[in-house]
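Lecture 7 notes: from sequence to structure.

We start with a single chain of 206 residues. Read the sequence below before looking at the structure.
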Amino acid sequence: DLRPLREVVVFGRNRPRLDELAALAPARVLVVEGEVTRAADIESLATTTVRRFGGVDVLVPAAGLRGAAPLAECTPEFVGEMFAVNFQGALEVVRLFQRQLNSGASIVFLTYGQTSARREGLGPFAASKAALASLAQSLAAELAPRGIRVNCLAPAMMDEFAKEDASAEARCKRRTQRVAETLLFLASDESAGISGQEIAVEVFPA
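Now the structure, written as tokens:
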């Protein structure tokens, strides 16, 4: 739901999906296509955003890569790719946008719901998200003098909702809605004073 937001910039590599989002509010949504692992693409995102809308009030580095692998397959290449997207990509977005963040701005990272059931093979993914949560605490302290808040939103994992039935579909919808509502809360002035926190979003059986 884009209605609570005045102007929105969406960035990613899936152009058809980006265009779908832009169609919801063409006059208020700017689409920038690119890869979060390419510094030139993020620089273009920052330049294009400032040129179109000026300073930034809310920054959500949401690009994520989730992959599972047994220990024997956790090669440096596999782990490096996971961290390149989930950690370094998010850090680079914040680094290149820091000068464009307005006083009182809110940064929200998407991390990993640690209260979800343990799953085999998610070590590198979980570690990259844990690193991101740790980064958020450090950035919250560094950016506090500018009145900029930094928090994490940790949605429950979706594996338990994978089976195709009406109950699972309903839970997926509730989960998506609650994640969106919590994100909007963290982005708004209603969450003023909340920084350096990781908020878990769970969906329980109806």
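The mean pLDDT is 87. Keep this in mind for problem set 3.
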